[in-house]
Design brief:
- By secondary structure, the chain is an alpha/beta fold.
- It has helices spanning about 15-30, 35-40, 45-55, 65-80, 95-100, 115-120, 145-155, 170-175, 205-229, and strands spanning about 1-5, 105-110, 130-135, 160-165, 180-185, 195-200.
- Strands 3-2-1-4-5-6 form a six-stranded parallel sheet, sandwiched between helices.
- α6 (about 115-120) links the parallel β2 (about 105-110) and β3 (about 130-135).
- α1 (about 15-30) packs across α4 (about 65-80).
- The longest helix has 23 residues, at about 205-229.
- It binds 1,6-di-O-phosphono-beta-D-glucopyranose and magnesium ion (MG).
- 1,6-di-O-phosphono-beta-D-glucopyranose (B16) binds near residues 9, 43 and 135.
Length: about 230
């Protein structure tokens, strides 16, 4: 079996930097949005995020102008993350990856971010991942399962053999649509469609996750049996 991690909100909290950069753009265009609205941008591609934000501000523009705004926002975002280092890895993630590595569990990254390779490099985690599928590589972003299906294929595993860790409702939806067990990272308020929810990786051991996976399989089997009759 194997695991696929989302990046933003699971390995590092880059959502706060995306928020600052998008807010700056919105403010320059004469409107604002809040953290509740920002929740809707989690796991969503850069282009789709821009369209959502422009919708909130009632702004319509040409494709050319939108492309220019995306470049501007990304420049600001890159400025904000330029000093990022391993100290920003979320609690427990590093030791959990070490454990996966020691147990020779295949590990993939499934992120919407086109900056994911740069971020993994900056926080020193690149070598833990045998597959990196990000926003540069997929045609259909989350909630489409393409990101995770590509990752599973690269790890030579079936979706039913992989666990996806995701912080965004759209990411959990993508994992479930692809036939993966989805463990939500964060609060149960937003992630009710996940199979299990963890606050984060602090004190989380691989054997705990394996136990959850076994329980999930049993539940799944029961469901398909009752469904067939
Ligand atoms: P970029 P994930 C996503 O990453 C973020 O959650 C989302 O807020 C962002 O818009 C998206 O990446 C694209 O990011 O502008 O860097 O390409 O959560 O899928 O790892
Ligand atoms: Mg995320």
């Amino acid at each position: 079996m194997g695991v696929i991690f989302d990046l933003d909100g699971v390995i590092v909290d880059t959502a706060k930097y995306h928020f600052q950069a998008w807010k700056r753009l919105a403010n320059e265009l004469g409107f604002d949005f809040d953290e509740t609205q920002n929740e809707q941008l989690k796991g969503v591609s850069r282009y789709d995020s821009l369209n959502l934000i422009l919708g909130w501000g009632g702004v319509t523009q040409t494709e050319e102008q939108k492309q220019a705004w995306m470049v501007t926002k990304n420049d600001w975002y890159l400025g904000l993350i330029s000093e990022m280092n391993e100290s920003e890895i979320l609690p427990g993630v590093h030791s959990f990856l070490d454990e996966l590595n020691a147990a020779q569990i295949p590990v993939g990254l499934g992120s919407a971010s086109k900056n994911s390779k740069r971020i993994l490099e900056q926080i020193g985690l690149t070598s833990y991942f045998q597959s990196i599928v990000d926003g540069n590589r997929v045609v259909k972003g989350k909630p489409n399962p393409e990101t995770f299906l590509t990752g599973a294929r690269e790890l030579n595993l079936a979706p039913s053999e992989c666990i996806v860790f995701e912080d965004a409702p759209k990411g959990v939806k993508a994992a479930k649509a692809g036939g993966f067990m989805a463990i939500g990272i964060g609060s149960s308020r937003n992630l009710s469609n996940a199979d299990y929810i963890l606050k984060g990786f602090e004190n989380i051991r691989w054997r705990t996750i394996q136990r959850l996976f076994r329980n999930y399989k049993i539940k799944d089997e029961k469901f398909s049996t009752s469904f067939n009759y």
